[in-house]
Specification:
single chain, 6-stranded antiparallel sheet, 14 helices, 6 strands, 12% strand
Amino acid sequence: MDDMAEELPGSGSLDRRAELSEFLRTRRARLKPEDVGLPDFGRHRRVPGLRREELAQLAGVSVAYYTRLEQGNGRNVSAEVLGSIARALRLTDAEHAHLTHLAKPKQHKKKPAARSEQVRGSIRQLLDSVDVPAYVSGRRSDILAWNRMAAAVFGDWSELPARERNWARLVFLRPEYRELFVPWEQKATDMVSYLRMDAGCHPDDPLLSALVGELSVKSEEFRRLWATHDVKEKNYGVKQLRHPLVGELTLNFESFPLSDGTEQALITYHAEPGSPSADALRLLASWGADATRAGESARS
């Protein structure tokens, strides 16, 4: 069955059982026997990666039990069994959490977020008080609030309709963001991995389902990356940018989840002190609103 068939606009939700099945199948397919200390019989293997019986043996469960799980039936599976399967599949912490969300939905069931998320006033004040690019990201990677420096680096999102202030739409549907991120492919891969993680937590979110469906129709690259079932949590790292006014930027980013139950996160970017990127950020700050307007003009 087409991996996108149940995820087109109007479907209302993602198929959790299909998600569980495909996630386990793709994780199993990426492992080679030698990765887990098993003999490789080469040309005699008819499927990529580990066989179900090999994975079941490594996890200490019956083949029938694992087969039912990979077919999407995660009812009554224990956290201990999921942990054994996660270790056998060499899952990352994010992948283990995603597996748990998919297999044990009753323990992670949450109501879909309201159509319009609100950012606390004190967080908006914090954004205005810091002199580094910073913004608040919400469900589905929506961009909810930002400061002047974020607009100078990434573009003035206030010029966009609220619906378009979404990282996935920006990355896959707006050409200027292909030029901004270096390499763009890494940003695109990360973006899809974040959405997959969100989908595991909120498969019944109609807005997320509609977003996935829209991007699947409009972007072949999104469709290809979505089919990999890779997941990743937002945390920290380094981003390379190619800014239309100041050129190359190397910025460290940090993601700070807000502890108010909103699932929002504060994302900040900063440059190494004394680096050319730090000088470039100071230049953008000195230009103020003019830099934002000029950057938008250069991107158009």
